[in-house]
Specification:
Cytochrome Bc1 Complex, Chain C; extended; single chain
Length: 270
């Protein structure tokens, strides 16, 4: 196979560039650590030469952000990390959970809480993490609303955000039933009935959630499949689309800065 020409290195921020050795520094000896670093660079280069992924990573991560960017802009990433934490702790819980309405579900959660090493801790992280994610998603939505970030050209990202909000609420709702204790059972019956009162699709939605007209054995496995597979998959895909649009369009400057600092805009609005 002919050797491919080496791709030119895309610009790297100066903070990440290794400084050249100072005169007299190093004695020319190559240590095993240097070999290890070279090996890692070669592997990354090998993958990059065949995929050009480093360009995409730089495009995504090294972006200019508008003046006035502040801590409120971290709420979206905080929501994403809450989601990742839910995904990781959820995988460990799924290793022990049994979606068995005949007592097995409750027993498997009792086992995780009381017997499994760090089980109570991981379950606690997942349970509290779900509230954290719901609170963060609302705060993030408030930030984008009050900063006017839903306006042209970011309307589609707002719409994707609305779907993400609904999916986050669906995760909380379906997860609540899984311990299958009295509280989970009756709270979910109330929740499903509330869904049923919605216009047009309400009754179909509650039938779909119950897995029939009665709340029964199929309801738990249905909630489990929605909670474990359907909604997390949709969430991951839509967060990807949401972030792609954030990287493509950039973030919005705070509204007060636009009015104060941009003389052209001030002229136009006068
Ligand atoms: C799982 C839920 C969500 C995740 C992980 C997420 C993540 C993010 C991230 C990381 C950003 C860029 C940084 C920032 O501005 O905070 C962002 C921006 C944005 N998000 Fe979300 N988001 C979620 C839900 C929502 C919701 C519910 C809405 C609104 C209904 C929304 C609307 C937007 C908009 C309009 C932007 C652009 C902000 C700008 O241009 O300044 N997002 N999102």
């Amino acid at each position: 196979m002919p050797k491919l020409p080496k791709l030119p290195a895309p610009p790297m921020p100066s903070a990440l560039q290794a400084p050249p050795p100072r005169p007299g520094e190093g004695n020319g000896k190559v240590t095993p650590l240097d070999h290890a670093a070279d090996a890692a660079v070669s592997v990354v280069d090998w993958v990059d030469e065949r995929t050009s992924l480093s360009g995409a990573a730089r495009w995504m991560m090294f972006r200019k952000v508008p003046k006035g960017t502040n801590w409120f802009y971290t709420l979206g990433s905080a929501t994403m990390f809450a989601f990742l934490s839910q995904a990781v702790t959820g995988v460990f819980l799924a290793m022990f959970y049994k979606p068995d309405p005949g007592g097995g579900a409750y027993e498997s959660i009792r086992h995780v809480t009381n017997d499994v090493f760090l089980g109570q801790f991981v379950r606690g992280m997942h349970k509290w993490g779900s509230s954290v994610m719901v609170i963060l998603v609302f705060l993030h939505m408030g930030r984008t609303f009050f900063f006017g970030a839903y306006k042209y050209p970011r309307e589609l990202n707002w719409v994707i955000g609305v779907v993400l909000l609904i999916l986050t609420m669906t995760m909380s709702f379906t997860g609540y039933l899984l311990p299958f204790d009295q509280r989970a059972y009756w709270a979910t019956i109330v929740g499903v009935n509330i869904n049923g009162t919605g216009p047009l699709i309400g009754p179909y939605l509650s039938d779909f959630l119950r897995g029939g007209s009665e709340f029964g054995a199929t309801t738990l496995s249905r909630f489990y499949a929605i909670h474990m597979l359907l909604v997390p998959g949709l969430l991951a895909a839509l967060i990807g689309a949401h972030l792609y649009l954030v990287a493509k369009l950039g973030t919005t400057a705070p509204p007060w800065l636009k009015a104060e600092k941009n003389p052209d805009l001030r002229k136009a609005s006068a």
